[in-house]
């Protein structure tokens, strides 16, 4: 990370990361395909009802993963391997404890939670076929994703790709087997997803018991101050994910009130398109995070500039291509997820796409900014970008814009949130760009 040519190192990390995250996204999309075509739109909506809980749990995992891996990467950049392994080990044991406790708490209070969300009738029935199963497997994903960050920090991006790709393949094969062949409905999708999540952990964990890398899973030493520092530094990821969960809840409420269950199904389909865009940008940003934090520790500011330029060009290129693809062929893409008879759902989704497309481009730029700010350990700025794009502005606009533009206001709320956030993110970046950091050394 400190010596290779920037472009070569960028490709070495970004390509495996992108392929891995796109594999995860494609697995989710395949879920949508099988559920939409073999189960129905209400089941598709049930997945969207479950998303807020996933976002919060995933946010906890990312908070530990990002915050502690950045600290570990900086320590490796300073050639302090022993303390790097110590931080990694503490993060691992803490996420194991928290993931099991949180999922158990949610599992035991599921009926009460659905009452609070006002999930009733057929939608409630379908949700209860899906969510309890997922919660049983969720600790494996939370631990696996945390370890995945440390594998990349330990300079093994191809192993990360293998784990994520294998998980995707397993999910697709089991989706077909459980939903189409065994006719398990939405429960089959839950089991397929859960089992595939276990594969990530099973592939990655042995790495830390071998002699190939610098990080080892050891008996932790000292207090938990580094964990508190990691929580602070990774807080933007938790804020981002949990805020997205709350935002989805509110969007579901508005869409259910305005369009009925078909509105939520439409929002779910849009979510799949946004997921592809998000994962592509996240893969680039995520890969750069470990590289930039290590070069920041070594005070190689010119290299940091090079990596940021590569990330910016990549994200803009990817997002522009994806946007054009979605705008040119919206009906064909929507037909992947719903039956021909679901005409109303299709109409809502097409209208949604026609207004929501700026989300793709500006969300990528905001993620790059947030990842950079986390990498240089500026959690306040990173957290502000995260909460603005995932909570403050989406919630503000989803309530405000419909009064001005009617239903169109619902469709443009997310795009407006990303655009306004970008203005703030650009300002934060300019205040902390590598050339400015170099002046303080």
From TrEMBL:
<dbReference type="GO" id="GO:0015297">
    <property type="term" value="F:antiporter activity"/>
</dbReference>
<feature type="transmembrane region" description="Helical">
    <location>
        <begin position="410"/>
        <end position="430"/>
    </location>
</feature>
<keyword id="KW-0046">Antibiotic resistance</keyword>
<keyword id="KW-0472">Membrane</keyword>
<feature type="transmembrane region" description="Helical">
    <location>
        <begin position="158"/>
        <end position="179"/>
    </location>
</feature>
<dbReference type="GO" id="GO:0046677">
    <property type="term" value="P:response to antibiotic"/>
</dbReference>
<feature type="transmembrane region" description="Helical">
    <location>
        <begin position="238"/>
        <end position="256"/>
    </location>
</feature>
<keyword id="KW-1133">Transmembrane helix</keyword>
<dbReference type="InterPro" id="IPR051327">
    <property type="entry name" value="MATE_MepA_subfamily"/>
</dbReference>
<feature type="transmembrane region" description="Helical">
    <location>
        <begin position="306"/>
        <end position="328"/>
    </location>
</feature>
<keyword id="KW-0812">Transmembrane</keyword>
<feature type="transmembrane region" description="Helical">
    <location>
        <begin position="91"/>
        <end position="110"/>
    </location>
</feature>
<dbReference type="InterPro" id="IPR048279">
    <property type="entry name" value="MdtK-like"/>
</dbReference>
<dbReference type="InterPro" id="IPR045070">
    <property type="entry name" value="MATE_MepA-like"/>
</dbReference>
<dbReference type="InterPro" id="IPR002528">
    <property type="entry name" value="MATE_fam"/>
</dbReference>
<feature type="transmembrane region" description="Helical">
    <location>
        <begin position="191"/>
        <end position="210"/>
    </location>
</feature>
<feature type="transmembrane region" description="Helical">
    <location>
        <begin position="130"/>
        <end position="151"/>
    </location>
</feature>
<feature type="transmembrane region" description="Helical">
    <location>
        <begin position="50"/>
        <end position="71"/>
    </location>
</feature>
<feature type="transmembrane region" description="Helical">
    <location>
        <begin position="348"/>
        <end position="368"/>
    </location>
</feature>
<comment type="similarity">
    <text>Belongs to the multi antimicrobial extrusion (MATE) (TC 2.A.66.1) family. MepA subfamily.</text>
</comment>
<dbReference type="Pfam" id="PF01554">
    <property type="entry name" value="MatE"/>
</dbReference>
<dbReference type="GO" id="GO:0005886">
    <property type="term" value="C:plasma membrane"/>
</dbReference>
<protein>
    <recommendedName>
        <fullName>Multidrug export protein MepA</fullName>
    </recommendedName>
</protein>
<dbReference type="GO" id="GO:0042910">
    <property type="term" value="F:xenobiotic transmembrane transporter activity"/>
</dbReference>
<feature type="transmembrane region" description="Helical">
    <location>
        <begin position="380"/>
        <end position="404"/>
    </location>
</feature>
<keyword id="KW-1003">Cell membrane</keyword>
<feature type="transmembrane region" description="Helical">
    <location>
        <begin position="7"/>
        <end position="30"/>
    </location>
</feature>
<feature type="transmembrane region" description="Helical">
    <location>
        <begin position="262"/>
        <end position="285"/>
    </location>
</feature>
<keyword id="KW-0813">Transport</keyword>
């Amino acid at each position: 990370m400190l010596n290779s040519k920037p472009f070569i190192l960028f490709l070495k990390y970004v390509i495996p990361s992108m392929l891995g995250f796109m594999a995860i996204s494609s697995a989710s999309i395949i879920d949508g395909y099988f559920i939409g075509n073999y189960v129905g739109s209400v089941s598709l909506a049930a997945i969207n009802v479950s998303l807020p809980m996933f976002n919060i749990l995933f946010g906890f995992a990312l908070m530990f993963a990002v915050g502690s891996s950045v600290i570990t990467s900086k320590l490796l950049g300073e050639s302090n391997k022993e303390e790097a392994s110590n931080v990694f080990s503490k993060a691992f044991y803490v996420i194991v404890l928290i993931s099991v406790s949180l999922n158990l708490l949610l599992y035991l209070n599921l009926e009460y939670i659905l009452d609070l969300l006002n999930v009733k009738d057929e939608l409630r029935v379908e949700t209860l076929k899906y969510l309890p199963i997922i919660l049983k497997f969720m600790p494996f994903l939370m631990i696996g994703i945390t370890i995945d960050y440390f594998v990349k920090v330990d300079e093994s991006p191809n192993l990360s790709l293998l784990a994520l790709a294998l998980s995707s393949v397993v999910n697709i094969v089991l989706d077909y087997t459980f939903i189409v062949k065994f006719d398990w409905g939405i429960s089959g999708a839950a089991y397929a997803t859960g089992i595939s999540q276990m594969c990530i952990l099973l592939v990655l964990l042995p790495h830390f018991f071998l002699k190939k890398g610098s990080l080892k899973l050891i008996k932790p030493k000292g207090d938990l101050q580094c964990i508190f520092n990691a929580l602070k530094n990774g807080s933007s990821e938790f804020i981002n994910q949990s805020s997205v969960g709350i935002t989805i809840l509110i969007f579901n409420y508005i869409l259910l009130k305005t369009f009925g269950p078909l509105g939520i199904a439409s929002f779910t389909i849009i979510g799949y398109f946004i997921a592809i865009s998000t994962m592509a940008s996240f893969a680039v940003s995520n890969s750069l995070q470990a590289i930039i934090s290590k070069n920041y520790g070594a005070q190689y500011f010119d290299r940091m500039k090079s990596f940021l330029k590569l990330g910016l060009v990549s994200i803009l290129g990817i997002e522009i291509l994806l946007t054009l693809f979605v705008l040119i062929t919206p009906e064909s893409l929507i037909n992947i997820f719903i039956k021909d008879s679901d005409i109303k759902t299709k109409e809502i989704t097409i209208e949604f796409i026609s207004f929501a497309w700026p989300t793709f481009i500006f969300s990528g730029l905001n993620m790059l900014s947030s990842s950079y700010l986390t990498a240089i350990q500026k959690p306040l700025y990173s957290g502000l970008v995260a909460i603005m794009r995932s909570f403050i502005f989406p919630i503000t606009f989803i309530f405000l814009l419909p009064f001005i533009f009617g239903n169109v206001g619902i469709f443009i709320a997310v795009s407006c949130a990303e655009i306004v956030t970008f203005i703030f993110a650009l300002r934060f970046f300019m205040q902390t760009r590598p050339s400015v950091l170099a002046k303080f050394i």
